[in-house]
Amino acid sequence: GPALPAAPPPRPGPRELAVATARTTTGLLALFVAFAFVGFLINNLIPAAWVSALFGRGNRLGVPLAALLGLPLYVNSEASLPLVKAFVANGASPGAALAFLITGAGTSLGAVAGARLVARWRVIGVVVVTLLVGAVAGGYAFDLGTAVVAAARLP
Asked: What is the pTM for the complete model shown?
């Protein structure tokens, strides 16, 4: 006769939920601490003049450079925020920070691994390039917008 559909998997109980929550929290906390340490290093070991020169408004290539930097360095939004805060505090433009966050979010190891389950490498490559171009355009637009707002506030 016809095969019967498989029974749905059992729902996790409170114990499984607590274990999964603890595991996720521990992993996120470790990443947050690691990137906070990287932020500390940026604030205290890398001269702010270097960050400003590479990623500040004065460097036309700062936004694309930050977008490229986001490809390998990004882990997740929660862990990357201390890094981005240090980045901006040391003179990076807001657009460069935005470009870093956009490219990283779409190209994190988890995102690429998930996409690989349903797509070919060529499709993933198109997605990565599209994210990179969009992040750079968005970063430049954000810098332009913040400059216009700042200029409008001048007396």
From this structure: 0.69
